[in-house]
Design a protein that fits this description.
The protein is α+β, with helices and mostly antiparallel strands. Helices cover 46% and strands 15% of the residues. The protein is built from 7 helices and 5 strands; from the N terminus they run ααβββββααααα. Strands 1-2-3-4-5 form a 5-stranded antiparallel beta sheet, covered by helices on one side. Strand 1 and strand 2 form a beta hairpin.
Length: 193
């Protein structure tokens, strides 16, 4: 146990008991406990394996390379269609965790083996993401915007492409593009201040 992580487990939460059960399972698998992104993260040789986090309807154990696991039980969940690699095991109470403990341990052990083997996932490239016509028009007609967009990190580029293309109506897509042109020109990502 890492004392720097204790505060997370000491907080009153609807998932407090579930979190404790997940913590015990992760530590029983020989993982190192760290605090990353404000959440308990469990690593093997400094590589992230799983993370405990909670939401309103469930708490979850996130497998960083979950897409590479065999998922014999069919219980891993892709958070959204745009999440490429991580997968979650979701729980709504501590009893589920206790009942699934052997399966959870088996999944964690498989995740450790995936890490030991050095397996990687080929991520989609920025060009593989849908480009909103309204944004493409601006890129074609404003050279400075095109240069600024291309200078962004791939993650920031993907964030904009997803956000712009998710709007169903052309008017909404155009409004989103207009709103974020200054931010792109400033070299900032979608969520940067």
């Amino acid at each position: 146990m890492n004392p720097k992580v204790d505060w997370f487990f000491d907080q009153a939460s609807q998932w407090q008991e579930a979190y404790e059960k997940l913590r015990t399972i992760c530590l029983d698998c020989g993982l190192t406990e760290e605090l990353k992104w404000g959440q308990p993260c469990y690593t093997y040789n400094k590589s992230n394996i799983v993370l405990i986090h909670g939401f309103n309807e469930y708490c979850a154990l996130l497998f960083f390379k979950g897409v590479l696991l065999k998922d014999h039980e069919g219980i891993l969940i892709q958070q959204t269609e745009n999440v490429q690699v991580p997968r979650q095991l979701r729980f709504t109470n501590a009893v589920e965790i206790v009942e699934l403990a052997p399966v959870i341990k088996a999944y964690i052990k498989e995740a450790i083996e995936v890490e030991k083997a050095g397996l990687k996932v080929e991520l989609k490239k920025t060009a593989d993401f849908k480009m909103a016509e309204e944004f493409q028009y601006k890129l074609d007609h404003i050279p400075a915007l095109k240069a600024a967009f291309e200078a962004l990190t791939p993650g920031r580029q993907k964030g904009y492409l997803l956000y712009f293309s998710q709007a169903k109506q052309s008017k909404t897509r155009a409004e989103r593009v207009e709103k974020y042109i200054p931010q792109i020109l400033s070299g900032k990502g979608l969520d940067d201040e």
